[in-house]
Amino acid sequence: MIHQMLPSQGTLRIGSYEVPHVSVVGIVRSVTRDPLHVDYMIDDMTGPPIAVRKYINVESPSSNVVAMENTYVKVCGSIKNFEGKKSIAALGIITVTDLNDLTAHLMEVVQCKLFYTKVINDFFTKILCPTPFANNLVFRIPMHLSCFP
To answer: Which InterPro entries match (predicted)?
Structure first.
């Protein structure tokens, strides 16, 4: 879904809803360490690899574990769009140890897309906003917190 964003869009939308945070599962293709942050290139197999930046937390060194290349990870964060390039400012990165998590993530993506394009849109259109302008409303979606340990 991230690769479907237009270059001019600053946020991801599902239907008419803004998605402030995303969860991505993919393979770490490269890791670059810096004193302040760690940059990853994550390949989720839906398009070109996505740049992910995770800032180092000096107060909690245990949360600064760096994922190794060629391992599956789950990244939760917010999408940034700078000069037409999409990246993710990571809030959390965890290593995927069970490949069933990958299958579960794919099902969550399908469920999320169907829910926010069909169920919620029908609910707001028919029940709460029975006006011709109902499809132009923008609602903020709360972050899905299942990606944090």
So the answer is: NA-bd_OB-fold, RFA2-like
